[in-house]
Amino acid sequence: MSVAAYKRIMLKLSGEALMGDDAYGINEEVVSRIVAEIAEVTHLGVQVGVVIGGGNIFRGMKGAASGMDRATADYMGMLATVMNAMALADAFRRAGVEARVQSALRIDQVVEPYIRGRAIRHMEEGRVVIFAAGTGNPFFTTDTAAALRGSEMAAQIVLKATKVDGVYTADPHKDPLAKRYHRISFDEAIGRNLAVMDTTAFALCRDQKLPINVFSIFKPGALKRVVMGEDEGTLVHS
């Protein structure tokens, strides 16, 4: 049996990833495909945490740009992530994978509150833990939540799932000469203003010596290849 390179991972999924080619909401076919990719990794014995975004339903920054109070908009965005997390957990249930949702905002009637020790126990017992509501605070992105939860859960790596298969020197959709970085340091990523994750998330992972791998969740088998330690995506390291 193949041996994974990592025992515990923190996967960052954007809300937009759940839309597929739709303009809004949750595409069930896409969610099922993502869940199947994650399930394959759990079958290797890898413990998985997932931080989910909410941009497919509501984005706080967009609400603030239209004149809404920023904190209010961010809290609304957090609630959108709870909806996505519940949909993801239900898809795991249908796929025969145990999952639990833990929210940084208390909504005890529908999901568990975030409790670090309980989350670690769930992961040790083979359940996928889906972390919703970001950090529970406005002005912080779900990228930062992924860095924070990854550090708290003692994950060995944060996996940033995107629509492109890594970090490039330029937008590969616009520049055919753009080249993928196989590896890049945190300082380089921050210095070159590579907008793959926000600076706060990069800085937290750098300080905690928690590497990040940026890869495409839409590339079949990519998640497994990253977990197996193969050259997939871009590794951002200290």
TrEMBL record:
InterPro entries: AceGlu_kinase-like_sf (IPR036393), Asp/Glu/Uridylate_kinase (IPR001048), Uridylate_kinase (IPR011817), Uridylate_kinase_bac (IPR015963). Inhibited by UTP. It is found in: Cytoplasm. It comes from the Bacteria. Residues 7-215 form the Aspartate/glutamate/uridylate kinase domain. It catalyses: UMP + ATP = UDP + ADP. ATP binds at residues 12-15, 55, 59, 162, 168, 171. Keywords: ATP-binding, Cytoplasm, Kinase, Nucleotide-binding, Pyrimidine biosynthesis, Transferase. The keyword Lipoprotein does not apply. One of its GO terms (molecular function) is UMP kinase activity. SUPFAM superfamilies: Carbamate kinase-like. Its EC number is 2.7.4.22. Pathway: Pyrimidine metabolism; CTP biosynthesis via de novo pathway; UDP from UMP (UMPK route): step 1/1. Homohexamer. Belongs to the UMP kinase family. Catalyzes the reversible phosphorylation of UMP to UDP. This is Uridylate kinase.
